[in-house]
Amino acid sequence: MSQSPPNVSASRTEPAWVRRLLIGLALVFLALFLFLPLVSVFFEAFKKGWEVYVASISEPDALSAIVLTLTAAVIAVPLNLVFGVSAAWAIAKFDFRGKSVLLTLIDLPFSVSPVIAGLVYVLVFGLQGWWGEWLRDHDLKVIFAVPGIVLATIFVTFPFIARELIPLMQAQGQEQEEAARVLGASGWQTFFKVTLPNVKWALLYGVILCNARAMGEFGAVSVVSGHIRGQTNTLPLHIEILYNEYQFAASFAVASILASLALVTLVLKFIVERQVRQELAQVKDVGVSA
User: Fold this and answer.
1) 0.85 cut: is pTM over it?
2) DSSP code at position 9
3) Strand locations in 48-180 (E)
C-alpha cells in the first residue's frame, strides 16, 4: 500500500510572525546593500546634468578604458568557453588519471586571491621575473601591457563555465552519447548533435557569469596593469583613479556603465537560470522514470 507524501505545509512549525520577520530582514538587507547603492550610483552620475555625464564617459581616457575592458572580455570569454566545455566534457563523460587534480585546478581561482594571482604573473613575466630577460631581449611586453591584463582576466574567470557544465553533464549521464556511437556517429557528431544541445542553457549561463566577472575584475588586473592612463586602465581601474582625484561626477558616470552591465547580466541570469532549472528537472524526471 503506497503512502501519501508528507504535507510540506504541515511540517512548518514556525509561527507566521517569524516568517514575516525573516522576509522583512532580507528585504531590508537587500535595500541597504543592493538597491540603495545602485540607485546612488545613477543619482550621482546624473547629478550635474546630462552634459557632464556624456563628457565623462566620452573623454579619451574613459573610451580607452571601455575599449580595453571589452578587449579583455572578448579574448578571455571565448578561450574560457573552449576550456570550460573541454574540461567539463572530459570530467563528466570520461574516467582518467588526474581527474581529481583537474577539478582542483579548476577551483583554484576561487581559493586564491586575485591580487596573489597578479603577483604571480609579475614574478613570471616581470622584468625581474623568470622570463623577464627573454621577453626584454625579444622586445615583448606582458606586464604593464594588454597581454598581462588578458592573462589575469583569463585566470580569474576560467572556472565559471566549467563549473556550470560539470554538474549538468554528470546528471545527464552517458546513455545518449553511447546510443549515438552505437548508431555510428563520430566523436564530433556526438558532441555537436547530442552533448552540446543538452547543455546549451547551462553553457550560456556560464558565459554570462564569465563575461560579468571579466568586465568587473579589479584585483589581479590592478597588479599587472601599471595604471597607465589611456593604455592599461580598465573601467574599474579608471573609476578608482577618478574617485581618488575627487572627480566624483566622472567616477560615478563611468561606474554607471558597469552598473548597467550588471543589471543586464542579472536579467539574463534570471532568464537563463530558469531554463537551467527546467533542464535539471527534466534530467531528474528521466532518471526517476528509468
Assistant:
1) no
2) G
3) none
